[in-house]
Amino acid sequence: MQLVHWLTMQLKYSGYCVVCGNRISANEKGQWSPGLKAVRHLHCGNNADLADELKRKAIDYIIAGKIDEAKNSISDALKIEPANTEYLYEKANELFADKQYEKSAFLYDMIIEKQPNSIYALINKGAAFHSLGRYTDAIVCYDKVLELDERNEAARKNKELAINGFGRDEEVVTYGEDASLENKETFRYDIKTKSPNPKVEEETIIAVCAFLNSNGGKVRIGISDKRTVIGLERDYSTFKETDRNEDFFELHIREKMDAMSKNRLIVSKLTFAFPIYDGKRICEIEVPGSKEPVYFKSGQDEQFYIRDGNRSKKLSPSEIVKYCKDRFN
Ligand SMILES: [Zn+2]
After folding, report:
1. Do 198 and 322 belong to one domain?
2. From the CA of 72, how far away is ligand 1's center (Å)?
3. Any idea what the CATH number is for the domain that residue 284 is in?
4. Are residues 74 and 96 in the same domain?
């Protein structure tokens, strides 16, 4: 928030208070801002400062995930200044830009509670929901905008995109494992021991190696065998708090891949994406077919895998010789 200077003084001219809108007469004790060229009553000034403080606190609460406290602070602030939401908009936009969609949506929602017809807040709340994969919630926001302004182009376009978003969900649910797709519930979180486990990591790396040695494919992390979207939260929980993000997750997998295949060139050919399905972020690793054999290394042991139907198959030494002759020459 911009710092605005207010000087408390005996006013020289009469004017209208920027907070309450009522008249202030000349010679009354009030506050004048050289920057804003505006006046306000002394008590209105104190109230406005209090409202600013409450809003700043509310944002701190939101960032800390203390939603009830944030609600109370915002509600108190807007009781004092019902129309002054500029700072809240600014912060909601910042959270959105920072990909903190849930917090951003919450803040827009608080604004909408006070200003139910704010098209700007409704569209942005919709966009935040969309980014979270909550397409139904997004569409509700866009419909509300179209109720207020049926020709609103942004709402119309966004609604269309949200409807398409459903299609992607459908794809995950119906698109089971086959020769080119493998779903993994987690990358390193062991569901049985509830802690990180290198053996669990090996399973994904083996699937990647098998795709490399075959015709390529896609590994999805965060989707269960039953094709339920689980998300990456359990894997993220095994990292320290500052590392719980997509960039670190990708880096971690690339490093493991590098260590277990000893093939930097191959690792650089993998592409990562982090789409959101059903409100949860998953990880997709696109694996190309390799031009040379890629061995999986577990300690001193070298193993060779290929894709066989919907699983990774380990070949024996004689099978490897035959397979490589056919596949790589
Ligand atoms: Zn006033």
Report:
1. yes
2. 24
3. 3.30.950.30
4. no
pTM score, whole prediction = 0.52
CA of 33 to the centre of ligand 1 (A): 14
Neighbours of ion ligand 1 (CB under 5 A): 17, 19-20, 41, 44
Q: Do 206 and 295 reside in the same domain of the chain?
A: yes
Q: Are residues 42 and 140 in the same domain?
A: no
How many angstroms separate the alpha carbon of residue 101 from the centre of ligand 1? 36
Identify whether residues 3 and 14 lie together within a single domain: yes
C-alpha of residue 22 to centroid of ligand 1, in Å:
6
Per-residue pLDDT of 80-109, as tens digits, reads 888 788 899 999 999 999 989 999 999 999
Query: Strand pairing partners for 196?
Result: 189
Residue with tokens 């209105």: 44
Q: How many domains does the structure of the chain reveal?
A: 3
CA–centroid distance, 6 to ligand 1, in Å, is 14
